[in-house]
Design goal:
about 425 residues; 21-stranded mixed sheet; 3-stranded mixed sheet; 8 helices; about 25% helix
Amino acid sequence: MFVERSAARIRLVRILFVLVCLLPTVGLVGWAAYRRSSLSRDSLLSAWSRTLGVAVTADSVENIRPAVMRLRNVALTTATNRFLLGVEVVEVETRDQGSLVRLPSLAIDQTGVTTLARLSLAWLTEAVRFPEGGVIEVDSLTWGAAGLPQPQGGFRMEFVVADTGRAIRIRREPADSDELRLRAVASSAGLRLEAELIAEQGLPADLAAAVAGWLPNFGDAAVIRGSLQATATPKTKDGGGWRWSGGGQGVVTDVALSELAEAAGQQANGEAVLQIEDLAVEDSRIAAARMTLSATEGELGRGLVERLITVFGCRLGPAAATLVTGEAWMAGPPLAFDEASFAVSLDRSGVTLRGVGAAGDTLAVLGGRGLLETKTTKIGYDRFAWLFAPMIPGAIPATIPASPRAVEVLSHLPEVPEAPAGRF
């Protein structure tokens, strides 16, 4: 009997050992092996891809401590494998109130900014898809092309969920007066977005333009300072974009004339300051604007001068009289100037260009004499669009140009009455 009881006890101890010690240990080892496996990494990245709506890949996923993962060489791409955004190191800490994402460094261009803006807008408006809030901390952000990087310091993005709606706050680290606030507010009339930008210290102008989804290319060194307030409502009840309305003012320094002229397919050189005295936006189009551009020392390509003469009715001044060479005019070198200053005003009825320098209605001056004189006349947007489209010198067709660039520019301006499209 003693032997039978001892054997029973031994069997019981063995069973308890298997249940209490061995199975949990095996399970823990298996779970750890799974967390380190490519299967776990692929499962995690697939889940993120479904949530974000873009393909997410990473070379490795490490569990560096409880509730904290480190991913290396993370990339966001489209379904067609077009690169959107890349980050060398990402640390994700899971918290009760949402995740804390840390990026030691982030190099970003216009495509990356557009991607983050689209995802931020989705987070604001799609609570089911993105149920939680969180924080993204970037220790060092670099903006611009790979050859001309511009360090911007640290940034912090806060994603806040409240009973009254959702909000995103983006500010510098350490904190200063510059920040961007976005809010989604639910009301009886439907969802409404609110945006406020304060940039007293200055932001890269092209970065601000990319966030707003606008066209301007001011150059890598251009910096914008100012403020902007706007609200938006859905275009349709089922989505399909937003109608933004608002206004602002500011100044853009170190503007590259070469980049502005390139928008019209022309040439110019020099640096300028763009003073935006007033900007009003309605239904995602510029409804009215007053701005002044001033530059000292530079060049105007002859094709650009010819375009200004044809579209705006400008005329060559005394300083250009000796440069005119008949048929060889367009083949000549750019026209140098000592000073250029002009004002542009936009409203629903058209565009006005006028000189504002010391020489009065003179757009550019060389040696104290007028190089290019302006004619203060308002033109319609159908005519203005030909500034951005190929055309026969000296003639303005009675149609709206169909060139992609002209169509893109017109999409940001007050609507033009129906007219037949031209060819290019």
